[in-house]
Amino acid sequence: MSEPKKLYIKTYGCQMNVYDSERMAEALGGQGYVEIQTPDDADMILLNTCHIREKAAEKVYSELGRYKGLKAEKPDLKIGVAGCVAQAEGEEIMRRQPMVDLVVGPQSYHRLPELEAKTRSGEKALDTDFPEEDKFEVLKNRPKAKRGPTAFLTVQEGCDKFCAFCVVPYTRGAEVSRPAARILTEARDLVERGVREITLLGQNVNAYHGAGEGGDWSLARLIWALNDIDGLERIRFTTSHPNDMTDDLIEAHGTCPKLMPYLHLPVQSGSDRILKRMNRQHTAESYLVIIEKLRAARPDLLLSGDFIVGFPEETEEDFQATLDIIRASNYGYAYSFKYSTRPGTPAAERDQLPEDVKDDRLQRLQALITEQQKAAQDAMVGKEVGVLFEKPGRLPGQMVGKSDHLHAVHVQADGLQPGNLRRVRIIESGRNSLAGALVE
Ligand code: 5AD
Ligand code: SF4
């Protein structure tokens, strides 16, 4: 048998890219590639890129520059760019950086084996199609190897919402849901390989409406079917849009035993005027009503969100409304970004706010969020939670895992293994993690 070829994948951006990178490794696994963790020995380097905020493309070009030396030493090394920058820039990438052999968009990576073969015959390979065939189903050569206790599973892709700031509808395309039966098969396969927690992924995951028995299934219905899989212990999903937070899904947070008490529900801004200019199709009030219903269903729900500051036309008063909605919602985690112009999106054409105004608002918003995050973490002290252990900690005899609410928890105990799900009493709140003790 010939030596396996070595594949190095560098993943940028969201969890969907992490999932896609796994699929790309599987697709090339069929071509005799094994994945390695550093680029130095690689026969192929793939950058799986993200285009959500500015400078993404520039970052990719500078990363490519770092591989120039390697490529000169090893002419057989193939270099590829995948993901959303590949989709957005296409051929331009090879024009600007001739050492790139392969460009593949997020909807056509199941064709990597053919594209790779093309590069081996000395040609350049480019594929940024939105093909008809289901890219997930073509990847049949998935190895049955054991896996860690947690996994991502993409159930929905793309977006039809067209928020005025966002490139996703352009790079990932229209909303597409995978059929329910295929998702369930993939979930059972993951569980057989050791997975105990699955996070369902989609750009608009709660807009899921995949074909299933008896007609289209909602995300709630899919979650209930996953709840029946023996050996699967925890279910999460991300990212949701407020307008698709249907009653059956809200109710599932109170009644579905394996659905974890954590929800990422971005609102972006607390000002109705800005929400309208963002084309969000909801108001601050309607968002707060959803949060109220969710907390009525599941009082200990930990909420996380995304915020954009410095969107075109945002005044100090609009910004204050964002701080108000943060105070009213009380987040356990939040991610905040300065607005950045994305070519081809409506808001990119508008008058932009000065950088120092954006910086100042981001700082003030992050100070409030940090306070809330710390309070939410500190409030866990004394409580009993489930922890799914993932790996050994820094100290001898220590194991770390994630709580039901997604806090990192470390515990000092003998005999704990990755994949163990235990009841833990939280005894201390540290800077970025909690300390706990096993409940007998
Ligand atoms: N500028 C800043 N933040 C953005 N996001 C999406 N597009 C932009 C942009 N142009 C943020 C949103 C989204 C998260 C994934 O990224 O908050 O929820
Ligand atoms: Fe982008 Fe999310 Fe808005 Fe869709 S709903 S356009 S993915 S921010």
UniProtKB/TrEMBL annotation:
Residues 5-121 form the MTTase N-terminal domain. Binds 2 [4Fe-4S] clusters. One cluster is coordinated with 3 cysteines and an exchangeable S-adenosyl-L-methionine. Belongs to the methylthiotransferase family. MiaB subfamily. Its cofactor is [4Fe-4S] cluster. It comes from Marivita geojedonensis. Residues 378-440 form the TRAM domain. It catalyses: N(6)-dimethylallyladenosine(37) in tRNA + (sulfur carrier)-SH + AH2 + 2 S-adenosyl-L-methionine = 2-methylsulfanyl-N(6)-dimethylallyladenosine(37) in tRNA + (sulfur carrier)-H + 5'-deoxyadenosine + L-methionine + A + S-adenosyl-L-homocysteine + 2 H(+); 2-thio-N(6)-dimethylallyladenosine(37) in tRNA + S-adenosyl-L-methionine = 2-methylsulfanyl-N(6)-dimethylallyladenosine(37) in tRNA + S-adenosyl-L-homocysteine + H(+); N(6)-dimethylallyladenosine(37) in tRNA + (sulfur carrier)-SH + AH2 + S-adenosyl-L-methionine = 2-thio-N(6)-dimethylallyladenosine(37) in tRNA + (sulfur carrier)-H + 5'-deoxyadenosine + L-methionine + A + H(+). It is found in: Cytoplasm. This is tRNA-2-methylthio-N(6)-dimethylallyladenosine synthase. [4Fe-4S] cluster 1 binds at C14, C50, C84. It is an enzyme of class 2 (transferase). Residues 145-375 form the Radical SAM core domain. Keywords: 4Fe-4S, Cytoplasm, Iron, Iron-sulfur, Metal-binding, S-adenosyl-L-methionine, Transferase, tRNA processing. Its EC number is 2.8.4.3.
